[in-house]
Design a protein that fits this description.
With 274 residues, this protein is of the alpha+beta class. The protein has two domains: 146 residues, Fructose-1,6-Bisphosphatase, Chain A, domain 1 (2-Layer Sandwich), CATH 3.30.540.10; 110 residues, D-Maltodextrin-Binding Protein, domain 2 (3-Layer(aba) Sandwich). The protein is built from nine helices and 14 strands. The chain binds D-MYO-inositol-1-phosphate (IPD) and calcium ion (CA) (2 copies). InterPro entries: IMPase, Inositol_monoP_metal-BS, Inositol_monophosphatase-like, Inositol_monophosphatase_CS.
Length: 274
Amino acid sequence: MAINIKKGLEQVLYDSAIEYALQAGQLLKERLGNKGKIQQKKNISDLVTEVDQLSEELLRGKIQEDYPDHWILSEEDCGQANAYEVFKNQDSGYGWIIDPIDGTTNFIHGIPHFSVSIGVVKAGKPVIGVVFNPITGELYAARKSFGAYLNGRPIRVGKESTLAEAVVATGFQASDFKSGSRVIQQMDKLAGKSRSIRIFGAASLDLCLVASGKITGFWHEGLNPWDTAAGVLILTEAGGQVTDQDGNPYCLFHDSLIASNGKIHDELMKTIKL
Ligand code: IPD
Ligand code: CA
Ligand code: CA
């Protein structure tokens, strides 16, 4: 693709990421009533549809055509097992990290809460993030140092300063939906201390909900870079904080993630510690 020098490369990448997310989102919307074959991956909570694969093909095709020298890490193509290998073997150039449908279980069940999530990283750090829910039309987008936006309007995290005022969200790893699992113990520790807890089922959108001040915190274990690459940039550009469970700055391969408006971060982190 010919780069518009005046615009700057990252602005061009930002525009492309938005265009690709809108196109893949349109596909998801059209195929909501026609999901095709649904396959089980690791267990009954871990599913993939024909539409996940088609969305990923569409996105990979666009990126390869427009940016043939950029690397791509995508969920259905790379799989969990070798994601880190793909990532660490890349050069310091630009890479695209894609979740073709974040919230596949919601998609399968017709729950209108799923997204296309596209992150662009440079030297391992997110520089562009786009998360699009094609059903509500909510397009969250951020560019490093240029702020975060929802449908073109700037967004900021909420002002709550205590857990008692905060609605927080979490989610299950496919392998962790069982009695007594860590997340269930953590929810138990939060009960009565936070205003309430939600499990929405699309981590990229959870991060955007914190970024736009609708909820105040989110934590999750066992996420992958395609769940978080876009959302963590949107969150930090909206003034939020994201760390691992010990308070270290979050990197895309950390096994735990705590995201918040910053003000309740320590309280949330200490409360869910097991
Ligand atoms: C899932 C969603 C969900 C989270 C799971 C993820 P997928 O992604 O983000 O909210 O709790 O751990 O695997 O499988 O729908 O792309
Ligand atoms: Ca996902
Ligand atoms: Ca997915």
